[in-house]
Amino acid sequence: MEPVPVDEGDTVPGAPRLRASYVLDDDGAWIAQARHLAAAFLTRARAEDGLPVSTRAVEVTQLVVSELVTNARKYAPGPVGLDLRVAGDAVEVIVRDGNPAPPVARDADPDRVGQHGLEIVMAVAQALDVRQEPAGKSITARISLLA
Hints:
By secondary structure, the chain is an alpha+beta fold.
């Protein structure tokens, strides 16, 4: 099933598309869909709004989206919300899920197989913020558009 677009920014003609929101369902292709949505959002921001978005910023954003959506799917019930927004010289990736427990970064261990997602996000994002919400939590990662 396709992701459900919730909002694609301002509806005023000619206004920049600086945000997009999606709800990802239980379909097995959610990681690939989320990465595609992130790349398409930044491509539109560059092409239609003239924002300076580096290729590396697109790649890092796709990586962060992949890790955060995977964790949300793995550890939380229900649908996953994906919000993308441009804030100044950065893109903010916000993932919402139904589990109120904050993620816990494990100590780095090169011998551990798996469970490195949050470590990766913390290493590549400018900032990471976790907030409790009425129905779970949101995790916001900030990534430089010029990365």
